[in-house]
Design goal:
The chain contains ten helices and 24 strands. The relative contact order is 0.11. It is 15% helix and 28% strand. Helix 1 (2-13) packs antiparallel against helix 10. By secondary structure, it is an alpha+beta fold.
Length: 596
């Protein structure tokens, strides 16, 4: 009976103690989704006689021998003038090349195809298998070079992943009218920022007899060991990019599939431990060799489908204009804890001229670094957190920065990454913008929006502060006191968010900061966090967070009590009376049980 009394008493007493035992270790990133499917993205930047970019995009595929077509966007112009030239041959070359194409290089032809007398008879867009693998012009079309000459090509048999990948090689553009002289060369690099995957390295021992098929079987074995769909595990290496013996092979893992800290499937001789043996109750369900105990080959077991998003949050920010232009610019961004990257930001612009109903077009829109307070300041520059200089003023900026290559744009350059807007009565502009974070270390909330004059004018027409719409965002705002050290890094800010998520026992995606990294200075300060209302936060935990009651390691606000309005002094003050009532009730219940 005494044990029962004690259990009842402790159980009721637990109502006054916050449950912070459930921890979440999910990591998120300040990267963004540009493509709505699993794709590999690679870029070749030209800075020679021709300047610009060639962006290559390819969907991932389970079969490395049947590559999907590769889409290539080419935006290249003459370095010295704005003339337009046509019929340029271009191809992938075997080795890396300097910008001026100095030195010898050869077309990439891993299957031994050469440019023989009858080459053009057999090689064509309809028969690409008879072409050299790197011969882009013959498998698709010739390209043009000139101002605003943006072109899209679809090229078959041009792999971005696998043993025959063109990443790590180069593209050369030759002279006009089918000239064979190489005028510009750009090395092909994986754009990991736009490729929604993470890289893992697995040690493998290669021999003199290792073939391309052998490399593909390694990929299949690793995917099977970790129950990853084959299409979501891609090799990020070339067959000629490593030597014999033990070597590290890079793989791209798409989605949220976990390969652990020690991925299995490599070579035992390279100090890679084998996968743990399955339990007795799993041998039939997940046979390690793809065969069931009855001897019948059922094929590799299909992994479970990914879980659907349980949580979905939306951040909303508004810029209210009340000057030469009147109206609103609204930005909305959805956030999911099951996505490693943040989504596109939807921008809605409804502006009209003050005093008249005229309609004008081709207005540029930009996010500027500092608040505007209703007035435009010529010293307020475009928001560019990843560079100390304003890239938008550099020569050839418009070639590298487009809606197809937004990662080469300044972060606050909305127009270049999407479109210009129109202004007028009952005119609405609705569009999506990549790489425009409303929250996080590079947040645009708290800055300002500048709308420029019509016709592509460089003069600012109106400016307004971009403010978080707390009512539409439906999140609780908590200002966390911290003491920022002199050597404050992005990682410290990210670790702070993960620590808070563990303290609050919620996914990291449910907690976001609106205090951008560049606005935080050394010393005692308050960092503003959003706690989305779809989570059930305990009042005591929130009070403890805002009152400096959590151990924030190097950021613990020691000596910063003056900026804390309600310091945390132990258990939450607001719950003392409730706990006292609970204690009395528990003693009363124990007495009733004993009497009974």
């Amino acid at each position: 009976m005494c044990k029962i009394q004690l259990a009842v008493f402790l159980g009721i007493l637990g109502l006054c103690t916050p449950d912070c035992s459930r921890q979440t270790c999910d990591e998120d990133s300040n990267e963004f989704i540009q493509y709505r499917e699993d794709v590999v993205v690679a870029d070749a930047i030209f800075t020679g006689a021709y300047v610009g970019i060639a962006r290559m995009v390819q969907r991932v595929n389970a079969d490395e021998n049947g590559y999907p077509t590769t889409a290539i966007a080419v935006i290249v112009k003459h370095k010295e003038n704005d003339s337009i030239s046509t019929n340029h041959l271009w191809n992938v070359e075997h080795n890396l090349s300097p910008d001026n194409c100095s030195g010898e290089n050869r077309p990439y032809a891993p299957f031994g195809v050469t440019e023989s007398d009858n080459y053009t008879t057999f090689c064509s867009p309809s028969t690409p298998e008879y072409c050299m693998l790197g011969d882009i012009a013959s498998k698709s079309n010739l390209t043009s070079v000139g101002n605003d000459a943006a072109q899209w090509f679809t090229v078959p048999d041009l792999p971005l992943v696998g043993p025959l990948s063109v990443i790590g090689r180069s593209i050369s553009i030759r002279g006009a009218e089918r000239s064979n002289n190489r005028f510009a060369c750009g090395n092909i690099r994986l754009n990991i920022r736009m490729t929604d995957a993470r890289e893992v390295k697995i040690p493998v021992k290669l021999t003199e007899d290792t073939t391309v098929d052998g490399l593909s079987s390694i990929r299949s074995r690793i995917a099977r060991n970790h129950r990853i769909p084959l299409a979501r595990l891609q090799t990020a290496f070339r067959a000629t990019s490593f030597s014999k013996g033990c070597t590290q092979i890079s793989f791209l893992v798409f989605g949220k599939h976990d390969v652990g800290h020690k991925p299995s499937g490599g070579s035992k001789d390279c100090e890679n431990p084998p996968p743990p043996p399955p339990r007795d109750d799993e041998k039939l369900k997940h046979p390690p060799n793809g065969k069931h105990q009855d001897g019948m080959n059922k094929g590799p077991m299909e992994p479970k489908p990914p879980k659907e998003d349980k949580y979905q949050y939306t951040a909303v920010a508004d810029a209210i204009f009340d000057g030469a232009l009147q109206g609103i610019v609204r930005m909305e961004q959805r956030i999911s804890p099951h996505s490693a990257r943040q989504s596109l930001t939807q921008v809605t612009v409804r502006l009209q001229h003050s005093g008249n109903d005229s309609e004008t077009s081709n207005h540029f829109v930009r996010v500027e670094t500092n608040p505007a307070s209703g007035e435009c300041d010529s010293n307020n520059t475009i928001y560019s957190p990843f560079s100390n200089e304003n890239k938008s003023s550099q020569a050839n900026y418009s070639l590298y920065c487009t809606d197809a290559t937004p990662d080469h744009c300044v972060l606050g350059d909305i127009t270049s990454k999407s479109q210009a807007i129109s202004v007028g009565k009952d005119v609405a502009n609705i569009f999506s913008v990549p790489l425009l974070p409303l929250l996080g270390p590079s947040a645009v909330v708290g800055r300002s929006v500048a709308v420029y004059g019509a016709g592509g004018s460089s003069a600012k027409a109106a400016c307004a502060d971009l403010v978080l719409n707390k009512r539409a965002t439906r999140a609780k705002v908590v200002k966390v006191p911290v003491k920022i050290p002199s050597e404050f890094t992005h990682k410290m800010l990210q670790d702070l968010k993960l620590d808070i998520s563990r303290y609050m026992a919620v996914p990291p995606a449910a907690i976001h900061t609106t205090s951008a990294f560049d606005t935080l200075t050394e010393g005692c300060t308050l960092i503003e966090f959003l706690l989305f209302e779809k989570e059930n936060y305990r009042p005591e935990a929130v009070q403890r967070l805002a009152g400096g009651g959590f151990d924030l390691k190097t950021l613990t606000p020691k000596g910063c009590s003056s900026m804390i309005s309600k310091p945390y002094t132990g258990r939450a003050n607001l719950s003392k009376s409730n706990c006292l009532f609970t204690y009395l009730l528990s003693f009363l219940l124990v007495g009733i049980i004993c009497f009974w």
